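Hey there, shall we discuss this one?
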Amino acid sequence: RWVDRTGGWTVIVDETMWMTESLKLETELKEMYFQGRTQGVSVIANAQRPTHIPRIAFSSADYLFLAPTGDRRDVFNLREISTGIPGEMVEEGLRQLDRDKHEFLFVDAKHDGLGIVTAPPL
């Protein structure tokens, strides 16, 4: 609530599923996803399982980095991202990712762009 009242913050959510389900912060996070931009709040959130992320987190995002997944529910949810990019393109991009090379599908929802990026080696 304090972030919402004061604005101008960047909030980093490490493991969104844990924050929403275990800590019961789903309502607060949804408010930040929905209203945060108006308050100058940026939310950087990650999750290993996109099935457990509120859909508004996807539809409110400017940029997404999607990891390869073999779970059909995850792929279905990622296909349904509310951007101008067709779901088939998102699914095909996910299918092309090489987990061993640490590739991610980059979705630029602001400009309807899609690309594959590789994380630098550790």
